[in-house]
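Hi R.,

Here are the chain sequences for the assembly we discussed:
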Amino acid sequence: MREYREVTSVILKQPSGIVGGLIVGTFVLAALLAPLIAPYDPYTTNPTTVLGGPSWAHLLGTDDVGRDILSRVLYGARPTIAVALVAVLSGGVAGSLLGIIGGYSRGIVDAIIMRAADVVFAFPLILIGVCALLILGPGVVTTGAALGCGVVPMFARLTRGEVLREMQRDYVRAARSMGASGSWIVRRHIVPNIASALVVQMTTAMSGAVLLASTLDFLGVGTQPPGASWGNILQEGRVYLASDPVFAISPGVVLTTFVVGVNLFAAAFTNALDPRIRTRMLRGSLIRRRASPLVSALAGSSEATTETM
Amino acid sequence: MARFLIRRGAQSLITLVVASIAIFGVIRLAPGDPVRAYAGFDATPAAIQTIRHQFGFDRPTVVQYLDWIGGLFRGNLGISITTHTSVWSVIRPAVTPTLMMMAGSIVVLLIVGFGIGVAAAATSSRKIDAILSGLAGLLTGAPVFWTGMLAILLFAVSVHLLPVGGYVSPATNLGDCIKSMLLPCSILGLALGGLLARFVRTAFLDALQADYVRLARAKGASNARVMTRHVTRNALIPVVTVFGVIVATLLGGSVVVETVFAWPGMGRVMMGSVSAEDYPVVQAVLLMYVTSFIVLNFLTDISYSVIDARIKQS
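And here is the predicted structure of the full complex:
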């Protein structure tokens, strides 16, 4: 509980944590409350308001069949964020489990898992998504699971590396010499010690998953019309780029803001979960970086320091 | 070194073989019957059976896979279901445009990645560092299909400076070729340039703060020597490691950029074939993408073993 408070406090000490957290929080809240806050039904067409530009009645204008774009953007957050969450959670959990199994058991099991990870890693993620949706059909769970398969190798490699490092530590050797079983050592010692690295990776992977989910929607293989997602609203607006730029641009602004927000929050979260940085920040000293290392090197001085973040 | 290369080469080969099995298997799982699509909806059952036999689809899956692989070695990728011509004849015109886009994007990627990354690491101004790092973050965060659309709106629709899309071969007109490449290559290169910049910044910061740089300076090495022999060379090791992955990501990103800019490359062929359920083409394009990725990874391993003396010696 104390650690949880410390992590929260360190996140809130960083501008990137506050800004990122606000952006992510606002978007997630907007997605959850879309039915309550959306001014119109996102699926109701209106032939009298086709391609109407921004107005007080429709802040982001209307699309090619008269639907309110703001309402569709609000609803569009739902599948986009949901797919990314399913992808990161399923891929993260599966990859971590495989990494733990491979790292702990070593030998042939490890070799098979790592070669399988190499194979999946060789496929561009976007093509994994396209092929999986081709077979399984579109849907939040299928798209999320497809992208999740793609991120499994990343988590498997990271977890394996972390497990191998932890296995060399004295406390694991001590537990072994005391006769502790493999599963007990993994559950009680290794998993708690590598958990923060995995959580950081999951947060960082979230922004990539949002971009990929939107890309699949943009390519027309993800969320299908009339369903709304940020990617497919952009695809619909693309045709009207010249005549109605707000239609084409606004979902992109929303998507980019959300991804940048996730990245900012992930950066602050990474710092907060690093015990050394956290302790320094809680003591009141900011993260310091050697100032102008190149300039210092060229000037022959290496003493100057400056603050970052 | 030779043993390292042989081991990595063998690993790459195994990965490629397993990937080819995965591609073949995945395509067989896809819904729809390629033979029925090839024969047309009005074909009789007897005609369908004849075509099925003709293409060997009535044989065991393992035999079909071995046939496919054997065909690859003979330069035969199969027959396209939509065009009824060889798969290679469908893919061949798309290879050069994709390679051109990759080449142009890599140039932009290197300029942007090293430009922003080194400048952010080198600057003494906290504000400039924050601005450059923020710019890198923004470039990475913006989806390429959206930035592509913005670029079209700005440079093609508003000021008519560059074409909206399409590809012009350098053999047809070099000037038009460069114009046609500018927008798509910049968009793709900028997106991943932001990612590269973050790695470059970290790598240069680490190298500049390392003890060996202080030692080199203490020994009286010139600034140029410190930068070239020590900082850049050591900073390049982690950068080269990720460069292969970034270029491979570029390959995946090209599918999207090709769609936005109506670029007649392999990504568009792939997406068109997916829509048309032309699985022999999808299968071949996937294999080409995966082979490129595996070769890139192998080349990356070789290059960092050349740069990093520790790997070379081990």
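Chain A has 13 helices and two strands. Strands of chain A lie at 288-290, 305-307.

Let me know if anything looks off.

Best,
T.
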